[in-house]
Each structure stands twice: as structure tokens, then as C-alpha cells.
Amino acid sequence: MPIPQPWQAEAYNQVPESENRVHSDEVARRYGFRGGLVPGVTVTAYLCHPAVEAWGMDWLERGYARAVVSTPLYDRNRFRVELRDATARAYEAVLTDADGTRCATGRVELPETVPEPPSMRGDPHLGEGFQRPRASREVMEELRERGLHALRARWNAAAEITSYLRNASEMSALLRPDGDGYANPAFSLGLTNWALGGNLRMEAWLHLQSESQNYRPIPRNSELLVESAIADLFEKKGHEFVDLDVAAYLLDTQEPVMSARLRAIYELRDS
């Protein structure tokens, strides 16, 4: 198995018009950022890129990643991903921007044994006309007890995140959206954000860290069902945090494709 290699590219904010307004310049600046943030799932995909390049389908079928985004990365910023202790089965990654600021770190592995995958619970689905409550600690505590609704998603060329690079041809051929490419890591991890945003109304939220396990690739035109549950809630430095457990399945077969734990700030303090 090849040993993953460091790489560099230009950051890409694919979703400046997203419902999550932290990706827009206007709202992000209101919270003290320089401009709209590159999505945390995209930054995580940058950490995983060397794994996809080196391990290909093996990583899509059973790859594991743990990532922490510590400092914002902005659109069109050059970045570099350095690898430490890289072997044919694992590496530590550090992403720094053009100023040398460390923005994210992660560990990516190709485990020999895949953990026991989740099974679909049968959570009630988000229906048409579902009225999302405004996110607050009280509402989140209620949803932790009551449970969240499952949502449906589809991987195809019309998905919100089809590439983690402005030029999709710079991604592995396995992931290119102009053909029969499989879902890229930014889309897969984006399911955790959409599970949160599909159940709650929030003006701006931050994807801070994730721990994810792949079980199989997501083929083009796959219909997915995503179930989620609130694992923890806490406050730190005026921000309100949530830990969310998420599992995604192929809708027609109920086979799991990915599980993840997301940590996000769902309510930012005013700057």
C-alpha cells in the first residue's frame, strides 16, 4: 500500500450562499472573522486528500479520520498539509495557511478491522412543511431526550458540495463529479451539518471537529437516509456546543456508508 504524501492547494468556500451564514462575508465579519469561512468539512477533506490519493477505494470502503479545525481558513488562501509519522496505514496531518498559521490537525487511518457498523433505528423522517425550532439550550435539551428527525439526501452533480477544490479535476478520479465519481469526504461529512441544520434553525454555526468511519463508497445518484442523535451539550467561553452522533445509510438497502461524531458551536457569542 502506498505511503500518503503532503500536498498543497488553494482553499475553496463552495457555499457562500449557504443557510449557515458563517460562510458569508457579512455575517462572518459580524462575529469577528475576516470573511466567510471555508466549511469545516472541506478543511477536513483537505486532511483526508492524501489518503484518497494513496489508498483509493480502500479508504472509501473503510477509512477512519479524526479532525480538529482550530483556526478559520478563508477562500482562495493557499494552504499546505504536512504529514507526520506517515505509513502505509496511517498518518498525522497538520494544515497551515499561507501565513504559517496552523488551522487544522488530524489523524487518518486505514484500519485492518472495521468497527461494528451502526444499524438503522427507524427515526421519524423530516416531512414536508416541518417547522424547525430555533436552536437554544432549552430546545437542544428537549431534542436530546426526544430525538431528532432523519433526513434524506442524494449524491449527484446537483449536491451542495460536489468538490472540495475549485477545480474538481484536481481531486482523485474516484471523486470527480463530472463522471460516475463517488461522494467526496466534504459531502459525506457535510451530512452531519445537514442533519443538524435540518432539525434546527440557526443563523450561523461552526463545525469544529469530527471523528468518522467509512463503511462503503457512496455511488453517484445514491439516495441516503441520515439519522442523528444529540450526545452532549455544553457551554464554553460564551459559546454553546453540541456533540452529534450521525449515521448515513443507502436508502434502498439500509446499508451503512458512514458514521461520525460532530462537535459544533450551534450558538456563537457576539463578538
The class by helix and strand makeup works out as alpha+beta
CATH class: Alpha Beta
Query: What is the element string, with H for helices and E for strands?
Result: EHHHEEEEHEHEEEE
Strand content range? 25-35%
Helix content: 10-25%
Report the end-to-end length measured between terminal Cα atoms: 47 Å
What does the model show?
By secondary structure, the chain is of the alpha+beta class. Helices cover 20% and strands 32% of the residues. Strands 1-3-4-5-2-7-10-9-8-6 form a ten-stranded antiparallel beta sheet. Strand 3 and strand 4 (90-97) form a beta hairpin.
What is the topological layout?
Blueprint: E1 7-10, H1 25-30, H2 40-55, H3 57-62, E2 64-69, E3 78-84, E4 90-97, E5 102-109, H4 137-146, E6 151-155, H5 185-199, E7 206-214, E8 222-236, E9 239-250, E10 256-267
Antiparallel strand pairs: 1-3, 2-5, 2-7, 3-4, 4-5, 6-8, 7-10, 8-9, 9-10
Helix pairs in contact: 2-5
